[in-house]
Amino acid sequence: MSALPSIATEVSTPEPGADPIHIRVRGLVKSYGGVPVLRGVDFDVERGRINVVIGGSGAGKSVFTRQLLRLEQPDAGRIEVDGVDIIPLDDWQLVPVRKKFGMVFQFGALFDSMSCFDNVAFPLREHTRMKPAEVRARVMQRLEDLRVAHAAPKLPGQVSGGMQKRVALARALVLEPQILVYDEPTSGLDPLSSRRVDELIAETSAKFGVTSIVITHDMASVLQIGHRVNMLYEGRIEASSTPSELLRTDNPRVRDFLIASGVSLP
């Protein structure tokens, strides 16, 4: 696989005075039953950019994501979101932090028995006191933003996989998060559909100015949309660079991973 032209050309500019690093991870450690998975992860998430995390099976990508969202308690380390370490926070203190995050799950995770409209409206009804008219206006705006307003009355099973992805993204955006986390967004899709999802991620990043974190093993996606690529290897960040720098790396572990992924190196 040769490198595809990058579509992540637009970068949202942080507000004046805003820290260009949205999330700082330092010395993150997590073990299960005495078996270490994360062994001291240091990682910067750049504000307003598409930050990609790659790595082989067992590298710790899923575990890292759970710690980042504070779905689990790390054993050690710091996770600073907008300068605040979220690891010591209790569930009540985490509420405003979690509102900064939107999650786009691997297979959309839409409720099959709800219409697309009700799927997108669900977070607003659960977490806000917005009136029905306000909910409808916000939901339809997000669906229109993502060009799936016509799917509003339909069930997820009545629309294509690509449209389901857009509806899932509308749901993630409806609470206006600052940070979007994508879990293997192109998994199970054919190459053409995968590239459309890449375009959607890049378009969303540019249009809404969100900070994006993409967890993926799809190297075609990485090279197209990533502003910064971070490779997890045996529980640590082995490399952090732009996609073009990654392709020129002399690190044998990174080169072996890229070659095994079908990437043609210069």
Walk me through the structure.
- By secondary structure, this protein is an alpha/beta fold.
- 35% of the residues lie in helices and 24% in strands.
- A six-stranded mixed β-sheet has the order 6-7-8-3-9-10, with helices on both faces. Strands 2-1-4-5 form a four-stranded antiparallel β-sheet, covered by helices on one side.
- Helix 3 packs across helix 4 (132-145) and helix 3 (116-127) packs parallel to helix 5 (161-173).
- The longest helix is centred in the C-terminal third of the chain and has 18 residues, at 191-208.
- The chain is globular, with a radius of gyration of 19 Å.
Integer-rounded radius of gyration: 19 Å
**Straight-line distance between termini:** 12 Å
H-E string:
EEEHEEHEHHHEHEHEEHH
What is the mean predicted local confidence, pLDDT?
Answer: 88
Described by the principal axes of the CA atoms, the overall outline is globular
Largest sheet: 6 strands, mixed
Q: How many separate helices?
A: 9
Physical arrangement of strands within the biggest beta sheet: 6-7-8-3-9-10
Report the count of strand segments: 10
Structural class: alpha/beta
Share in helix: 25-40%
| Poorly predicted regions | none
Sheet-strand content, in percent, reads 15-25%
